[in-house]
């Protein structure tokens, strides 16, 4: 538990309210002065125009006061910025990968998740990068935002106090699926997070112990494949119920006849394992007719084992 650290949203909100207060005072002052001038110097009161000479003191005042206000706003903003960029020593690091159009979070113990799960009361440092184009990670509840830039790492940190579910989304237009690039920050009680964070090693099954082992393994692979399809963002563009989204539906995809565009020419194919692998690694090679060629290559993103698991999952979707 971090002590002595105010919340980030208090820091941001205080600067915002400070600027709003100054703006309201100026608005009221300028409006009151304008009304006074309209009444005091109306044509009825002053039928003959007069030449008004400059007032040195007034000019000094309206130069000094705005300068002081601007410097005060700069100081408040700079102090808040330094605080936001100074990560506490005990912050929990989480690697964040952005891609069209999903988020992936990886923890120190190797665990990965499509939602950001964090313990309440402990600062969290997000180490952010992008696998394709520019994205923007924004968590409104904690007043933090940082760009995810291809080829470099950026960072931010925040202190989640209260358990709950908070929105996390992309603020940089990154393509047709941009509006769906939304996930959650799940702030969990410390004990609940510790139980989730613990990686449980799969128990080894002795050979020949159960005739149901192949079925159990198949069901396990199906669950892993479904999780991978969710975490890797596949289901943002492909449905499971036959509905066409940005890409063709996964329902009954294996063995289905479809027309693809290859080098500008239409041709009919049967979707098999070879085609599915090529679609993941070289998605522009054979684009399903009627759909935009926007799928990013998964080469270097998915391991061979993950590709195999996802394809087995797709083959099972009848």
Which properties best describe this structure?
7 helices, disordered N terminus, 5-stranded mixed sheet, Immunoglobulin-like, 318 residues, alpha+beta, 13 strands, Cytochrome Bc1 Complex, Chain D, domain 2, 22% strand, 3 domains, Helix Hairpins
Please, could you describe this protein's structure?
This protein is α+β, with helices and mostly antiparallel strands and 318 residues long. The protein folds into three domains: 8-47 and 54-85, Helix Hairpins (Orthogonal Bundle), CATH 1.10.287; 92-197, Cupredoxins -  blue copper proteins (Immunoglobulin-like, Sandwich), CATH 2.60.40.420; 215-315, Cytochrome Bc1 Complex, Chain D, domain 2 (Orthogonal Bundle), CATH 1.10.760. Helix content is 36%, strand content 22%. It contains seven helices and 13 strands. The strands form three sheets. It has a five-stranded mixed β-sheet with strand order 3-2-1-5-8, with no helix packed on it. Strands 4-10-9-6-7 form a five-stranded mixed β-sheet. It has a three-stranded antiparallel β-sheet with strand order 12-11-13, with no helix packed on it. Strand 2 and strand 3 (112-113) form a beta hairpin. The relative contact order is 0.09. The model is unreliable at 1-5 and 201-214 (pLDDT under 50).
Summarize this structure briefly.
The chain has 318 residues and is an alpha+beta fold. The protein has helices at residues 8-40, 56-85, 190-197, 213-231, 234-237, 273-281, 304-315; strands at 92-99, 102-107, 112-113, 116-119, 124-130, 135-139, 144-148, 154-158, 164-170, 182-188, 257-262, 265-270, 287-288.
């Amino acid at each position: 538990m971090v002590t002595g650290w105010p919340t980030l949203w208090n820091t941001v909100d205080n600067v915002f309210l400070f600027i709003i207060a100054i703006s309201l005072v100026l608005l009221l002052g300028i409006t009151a002065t304008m009304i006074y001038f309209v009444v005091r110097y109306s044509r009825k009161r002053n039928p003959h125009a007069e030449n008004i000479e400059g007032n040195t003191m007034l000019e000094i005042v309206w130069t000094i006061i705005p300068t002081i206000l601007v410097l005060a706003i700069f100081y408040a903003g700079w102090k808040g910025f330094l605080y936001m960029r100074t990560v506490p020593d005990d912050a929990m690091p989480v690697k964040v990968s952005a891609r069209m159009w999903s988020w992936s979070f990886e923890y120190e113990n190797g665990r990965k998740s499509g939602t950001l799960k964090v313990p309440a009361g402990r600062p969290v440092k997000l180490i952010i990068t992008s696998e394709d184009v520019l994205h923007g990670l924004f968590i409104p509840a904690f007043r933090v935002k940082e760009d995810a830039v291809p080829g470099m790492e950026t960072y931010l940190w925040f202190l989640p106090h209260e358990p709950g579910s908070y929105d996390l989304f992309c603020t940089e237009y990154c393509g047709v699926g941009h509006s769906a690039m939304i996930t959650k920050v799940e702030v969990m009680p410390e004990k609940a997070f510790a139980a989730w964070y613990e990686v449980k090693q799969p128990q080894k099954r002795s050979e020949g112990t159960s005739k149901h082992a192949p079925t159990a393994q198949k069901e396990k692979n199906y669950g892993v494949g479904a999780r991978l399809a969710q975490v890797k963002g596949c289901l943002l563009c492909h449905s499971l119920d036959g509905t066409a989204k940005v890409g063709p539906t996964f329902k009954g995809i294996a063995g289905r006849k479809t027309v693809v565009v290859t080098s500008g020419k239409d041709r009919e194919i049967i979707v098999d394992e070879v085609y599915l692998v090529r679609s993941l690694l070289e998605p522009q090679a054979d684009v399903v007719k009627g759909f935009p060629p926007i799928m990013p290559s998964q080469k270097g993103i998915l391991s061979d084992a993950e590709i195999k698991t996802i394809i087995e999952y797709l083959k099972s979707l009848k």
